[in-house]
């Protein structure tokens, strides 16, 4: 399987048309069609459903698209790393992160490094812990900023300062907004919009199982979310109360929303992590040294 042909396939998947893809790639349509047919024969599966004007992906084609995107990303990242070795210290650093106010600590180190080395560029991928660790494991990210709990068996890590506080995002005109804290009694009978950390898979480690106790399985969870921006929109629409971390949603006077901390208090620590035995580019290595100097090591 040639890298060049994977690029061809991704272009066809993106354009939805062999003709449009051929024009983009500066190839003839018969040449591109033959390359795709050879790829299908090589893999032993049909990848494209060819219509009169458009093409779509088969299930096998969708699987290849995901894998091909990862392969292309990895090769481009590797090429960039080797290119940076030949130059003055520069290059690309890839960081994945969950939603957290503690990202500000990492951002300060990023700014200091760029002030000293303007040719270093940062690329941020936002997602939940599963999204970030998947890309870390595949070598598509150099570092991840993750909210605990985290399985650190495959990673080295540096704990970040402070802890994030869990609470509820509510409309300011809701009954719960009159309180300065949200207790178990307040939450057992109201519609909740739950984060990934509240799922049964993560709840014990994150502390939610203990916090809610025997009421955990009786909660009225009306919606779930990965990233909090859309959860805040659902709260504003009156769908329910969102369980989230503090300082992630705009709750100033210009909004309809407010943040109410859980009582008793529930907090989560954070770590910046990277794969054990990872070989870094010069830029990523320098960034790690700055992080270790700033926050220490474990």
Explain what you see:
Helix 1 (3-15) packs across helix 2 (18-25), helix 1 (3-15) packs across helix 4 (59-86) and helix 2 (18-25) packs across helix 3 (29-43). This protein has helices spanning 3-15, 18-25, 29-43, 59-86, 103-116, 129-137, 184-187, 200-206, 208-212, 228-236, 282-295; strands spanning 48-50, 55-57, 91-97, 120-126, 143-147, 155-159, 164-171, 192-195, 221-225, 241-245, 257-261, 267-268, 270-275. The strands form 3 sheets. Strands 7, 8, 9, 10, 11 and 12 form a 6-stranded mixed β-sheet that branches. The protein has a 5-stranded mixed β-sheet with strand order 4-3-5-13-6, sandwiched between helices. The radius of gyration is 24 Å and the shape is globular. The chain has 3 domains: 3-69, Orthogonal Bundle (Arc Repressor Mutant, subunit A); 87-162 and 270-295, Periplasmic binding protein-like II (D-Maltodextrin-Binding Protein, domain 2, 3-Layer(aba) Sandwich), CATH 3.40.190; 164-268, D-Maltodextrin-Binding Protein, domain 2. It is an alpha/beta fold.
């Amino acid at each position: 399987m040639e890298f060049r042909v994977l690029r061809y396939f991704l272009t066809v998947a993106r354009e939805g048309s062999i003709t449009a893809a051929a024009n983009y790639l500066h190839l003839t349509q018969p040449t591109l069609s033959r390359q795709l047919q050879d790829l299908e024969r090589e893999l032993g599966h049909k990848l494209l459903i060819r219509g009169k004007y458009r093409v779509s992906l088969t299930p096998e084609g969708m699987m290849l698209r995901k894998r091909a995107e990862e392969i292309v990303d990895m090769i481009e990242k590797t090429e960039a790393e080797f290119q940076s070795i030949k130059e003055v210290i520069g290059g690309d650093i890839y960081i994945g992160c969950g939603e957290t106010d503690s990202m500000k600590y990492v951002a300060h180190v990023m700014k200091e490094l760029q002030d000293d080395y303007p040719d270093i560029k940062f690329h941020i991928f936002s997602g939940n812990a599963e999204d970030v660790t998947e890309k870390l494991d595949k070598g598509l990210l150099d570092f991840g900023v993750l909210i605990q709990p985290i399985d650190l068996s495959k990673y080295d890590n540096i704990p970040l300062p402070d802890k994030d506080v869990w609470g509820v995002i509510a409309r300011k005109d809701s009954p719960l907004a009159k309180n300065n804290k949200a207790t178990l009694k307040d939450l057992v009978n109201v519609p909740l919009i739950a984060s990934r950390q509240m799922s049964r898979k993560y709840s014990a480690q994150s502390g939610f199982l203990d916090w809610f106790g025997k009421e955990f399985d009786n909660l009225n969870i009306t919606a779930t979310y990965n990233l909090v921006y859309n959860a805040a929109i659902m709260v504003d629409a009156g769908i329910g109360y969102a369980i989230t971390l503090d300082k992630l949603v705009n709750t100033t006077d210009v909004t309809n929303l407010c943040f109410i901390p859980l009582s008793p208090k529930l907090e989560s620590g954070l770590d910046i992590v990277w794969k054990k035995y990872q070989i870094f580019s010069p830029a990523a290595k320098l960034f790690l040294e700055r992080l270790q100097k700033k926050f220490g090591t474990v």
